[in-house]
Amino acid sequence: MTDQDCRDTIARQWFQKAEDSFAEAVLLLREDRLVGCINRMYYSAFYAASAVIAKEGKTYGKHSAVRASLHRDFVKTNRLPQSSGKVYDKLFEDRQEGDYAPRTSFEREDVELLIGETRELLDSLKVLVD
């Protein structure tokens, strides 16, 4: 197995985790568990970003480093649209609020919009993994 084959395998595994997390987000939305839905949407984006980063042979141990790489290596180089970076940032910030602020709530309509944007982000990242 070549080094690239190994990176491709790791990228596919990360992306499967992204898809699994997104499916969990959909289930949580259906049950009106909006804070949990935001968490799973963020992790789906984080895993998908980790997949494209891994495909290039890089790994990062911090969420902030994955976020920085997404912007530096993919958005600023026009490999991803600006909107992808904005959605990732929104998910990052909402997940932080949902996980660490004790009285956080989100509006269902906002979460429904964000789930569609997250799906688009995943689809854009998938192109870079395939």
Walkthrough of the structure:
With 130 residues, the protein is mainly alpha-helical. It has one domain (3-129): Nucleotidyltransferases  domain 2 (Four Helix Bundle (Hemerythrin (Met), subunit A)), CATH 1.20.120.330. 80% of the residues lie in helices and 0% in strands. The chain has five helices and no strands. It has helices at residues 3-30, 34-55, 63-75, 82-100, 108-129. It is globular. The two termini are 18 Å apart. The mean pLDDT is 96.
Secondary structure elements and pairings:
Elements (H helix, E strand, L loop, with lengths): L2 H28 L3 H22 L7 H13 L6 H19 L7 H22 L1
- Gyration radius from CA atoms, angstroms: 14 Å
Provide the domain count: 1
Structural class: mainly alpha
Q: In the CATH hierarchy, what is the class?
A: Mainly Alpha
CATH superfamily, please?
Nucleotidyltransferases  domain 2
**What is the element string, with H for helices and E for strands?**
HHHHH
* Main sheet record: none
Oligomer: single chain
Task: Please supply descriptive tags for the structure shown above.
130 residues, mainly alpha, Four Helix Bundle (Hemerythrin (Met), subunit A), 5 helices, 0% strand
